[in-house]
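Quarterly update, task 2.4: zinc ion-bound model.
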Amino acid sequence: MFGVVNYPKNKANLKLNSPTDEKSSANQIFSENNQQQTAQSQSKPETISESDFHWMTQALLQAQIAKNKNEVPIGAIIINDNGLVAATHNTRETECNPVGHAELIAIQQAAKTLQRWRLSDCTLYVTLEPCSMCAGAIVLARIPRVVFAAKDPKAGAVGSLYNILQDDRLNHRPEVVQGILETEASEMLKAFFREKRKNKV
Ligand SMILES: [Zn+2]
């Protein structure tokens, strides 16, 4: 069975760790990353491809859209061999929906697009570690591969608090890849909450 693949921090985090980079536009960040990826592609683990960076970048752009709507910036993408089947972001505030998490909406959107509930040919990209609800939905949808960027020590259910995607008692255990564009996803979230706190004072 698959284990969690942690993308090496020194490769994934590139040169964007400094908080001073926060002011850079998303596009600048992503194009810098793309240049770095090419240079370092030879040392990547087998299961991580260039397309993983591409799709995680798209997920981050979805997170940015959420941020622009004053939503917690979390984005999700689902692809299969034919390309994109879902691109969504957190909608909890705008929809007044406690379950409006990016990956849950993406799963529903993908199932609608493909006209089937079983997403056994899909990969899910999400900018933050899925919670227990979303991890449960990933199992129910039979998604075989999950790629997430930042860990969520407060609610993560893919290794942080629980490990639902690698629980032998369940009938489905996807491959999990963690760490691609982790710093970018994490910084976006931190900056969002910093701003929120500042506005409260
Ligand atoms: Zn969730």
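Highlight for this quarter: Confidence is low (pLDDT under 50) at residues 8-44.
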